[in-house]
Design a protein that fits this description.
By secondary structure, the protein is α/β, with parallel strands linked by helices. The protein is 41% helix and 14% strand. Bound molecules: NADPH dihydro-nicotinamide-adenine-dinucleotide phosphate and 2-hydroxyethylsulfonic acid.
Length: 252
């Protein structure tokens, strides 16, 4: 039987990289994409020969998405699972001080990149037939407001609603759609959010046990391997150390 194929955006780090490693080590073929080519090459060289196809692809560049899909080798088609994972938060300043260019980058990547990938991938997912799935990485920030989450949280609220709307439009096909929403996880996420501030990054994870990329990879594995008639529509995962806050009251 033909190996199953997962297409991963943002496979150079964090959740995407851990998922690529788990799937390639367990018999799936992996299309690993991201902007940092050296990391993609390293990933391919670490994994079983022939299991990984890499493509340098920026989610904000329409042509790069189209070229990547057009150039997929036959053994990496059709696609059984699309993991829409590539994304970022930039800045944690309140709205009056936030940077417009950061908002633009988050909207272009987390929203436009994800919807464009989803649309372009539908024909290849349909070819895979029963058991195909799109897994969108949302966030607890979609429904938990906190100071500084502003546009980042809103992009993830978009991912949540878009996942439901996509599932509605795909009804009658075999394609399942899941919104997988993690809470605090240790990856390069906070380093990117703080513009490379290692100290802030370390401090954020001090004294807590966050989700690890491997934990999310395990969940993606579980989702992608549910029986074909089951669609897990929403899965939220938090570390034990994290809770949702009650609405704050500011007095005076
Ligand atoms: P990382 O920063 O470790 O990984 C982010 C990945 O996204 C990288 O592989 C990066 O690749 C890729 N990426 C970013 N911008 C682009 C772009 N323009 N084009 C292509 N790829 C891009 O963070 P995580 O693994 O934590 O994040 C993965 C997803 O999970 C994101 O959507 C994030 O919002 C979400 N998330 C993270 C949480 C956390 O606490 N860590 C919690 C909830 C959700 P490259 O730079 O090479 O292009
Ligand atoms: C990332 C999780 O809580 O840092 O999406 O916003 S959080």
């Amino acid at each position: 039987m033909k190996d199953k194929v997962i297409f991963i955006t943002g496979a150079t780090s964090g959740f995407g990289e851990a998922t690529a490693r788990l799937f390639a080590n367990n018999g799936w073929k992996v299309v690993a994409t991201g902007r940092r080519l050296e990391r993609l090459k390293k990933l391919r060289s670490d994994l079983p020969k022939g299991q990984v196809y890499i493509a340098q692809m920026d989610l904000t560049k329409h042509n790069e998405i189209l070229n990547t899909i057009a150039n997929l080798p036959n053994e990496f088609k059709p696609i059984d699972c699309l993991l829409n994972n590539g994304g970022l938060a930039l800045g944690a300043e309140p709205i009056p001080n936030a940077k417009l260019e950061d908002w633009q980058a988050m909207i272009n990547t987390n929203i436009f990149g994800l919807i464009h990938m989803s649309q372009e991938m539908i024909p290849l997912l349909k070819q895979a037939g029963k058991g195909a799935s799109i897994i969108n990485i949302g966030s607890i920030a979609a429904r938990n407001a906190y100071p500084g989450a502003n546009v980042y949280g809103a992009t993830k609220a978009f991912v949540s609603q878009f996942s439901d709307n996509l599932r509605a439009d795909l009804a009658g096909t075999d394609i399942r759609v899941t919104n997988l929403a993690p809470g605090m996880a240790k990856s390069e996420f906070t380093k990117i959010r703080t513009y490379g501030d290692d100290e802030a990054n370390e401090k954020f994870y001090e004294g807590v046990e966050p989700i690890l990329p491997q934990d999310i990879a395990d969940s993606v594995w579980w989702l992608a391997n549910r029986p074909a008639h089951i669609n897990v529509t929403f899965l939220e995962i938090m570390p034990v150390c994290q809770i949702s806050g009650r609405p704050e009251i500011r007095r005076g």
